[in-house]
Design goal:
Structural class: mainly alpha
Low-confidence stretches: none
Distance between the termini: 37 Å
Helix content: over 70%
Length: about 80
């Protein structure tokens, strides 16, 4: 069962990233990642936690908005939803 779950995750990961890119665009999340990495290198745990929480919640909000738009047939090519 574990192997099946791992294979499923590996096989769906690329599609998840495509959907996340559609929802959030590519530049903002990448900039978040670099800021989080820099804070981690400085060993600023509080900043890392704060930025990770904000990044995850922003991504969740964007993905949910994208899913609602797709459900309603409102998805426009390259559109970002917030």
């Amino acid at each position: 069962m574990r192997r099946l779950i791992e294979e499923f995750c590996l096989n769906t990961d690329r599609y998840t990233h495509v959907e996340m890119s559609k929802a959030t665009g590519k530049e903002d999340p990448q900039a978040d990642h670099y800021r989080i990495l820099e804070a981690a290198r400085r060993r600023d745990t509080a900043a890392v936690v704060e930025m990770l929480e904000a990044h995850i919640l922003d991504t969740k909000r964007e993905l949910l908005a994208l899913a609602r738009a797709q459900e309603q047939g409102e998805l426009l090519s390259g559109a970002r939803f917030t």
